[in-house]
Amino acid sequence: MNVLQLPLGPLQTNCYILSNDMNEAVIFDPGEEAHVIFNVIEENKLKPLAILLTHAHFDHIGAVDDVRDEYNIPVYIHKYEADWLTDGQKNGSELFMRNQSIFAREADHLIEKEGKMEIGPFLFSIFETPGHSPGSVSFYCKEIKTVFSGDALFEGSIGRTDLPGGDHEQLIRSIKGKLLSLPDDVVVCSGHGETTTIGDEKRYNPFL
């Protein structure tokens, strides 16, 4: 399998594209600049199967509808943020984007709880990792020892908790109880910045 990291938009929010040897792909957090995503998919001759959202803050959802409509694929999000896609106040765009709100249509599928998720040939373990936002989830692909953590855990840092629905203590519990329970060599694909590993964050992250 292959993971492509695309930092998009003014906040350089990471969109990830996970693909296999058959060129099938899933797309995580298409936050902005849909044309960049389209170009990468075309260049690599990929066949997208779904959009998976780690959470619904505006910088992670700005290109959702463009990508969904281009490839006619479903969108998945946790049930606790089902209405954030259509609400500029909840997704933060009204707070940060002057005179502009960012929306997406409702998701096609709601993630109800932790457990296994199959998208075509892709198998993920879903961890509920709230704290940055109430419906934050992380997608762990055991086959490639990689977790897509959204804005829960970063290289040497953690997600901010001063936005609506944020909870610092809850985020620390999520990270320590869910993410840090993974093997040390698991790669962490964060919502911003560079990738890291579980082992490095255990050893060097000053917040943990």
TrEMBL record:
Pfam families: Lactamase_B
Cofactors: Zn(2+)
Domain Metallo-beta-lactamase: 12-192
SMART domains: Lactamase_B
This protein's record includes keyword Cell division: no
Region forming the signal peptide: none
Xref: Gene3D superfamilies: Ribonuclease Z/Hydroxyacylglutathione hydrolase-like
Annotated keywords: Hydrolase, Metal-binding, Zinc
Origin: domain of life: Bacteria
Alphabetical list of InterPro entries matching this protein: MBL_Glyoxalase_II, Metallo-B-lactamas, RibonucZ/Hydroxyglut_hydro
Protein name: Metallo-beta-lactamase domain-containing protein
Source organism per UniProt: Gottfriedia luciferensis
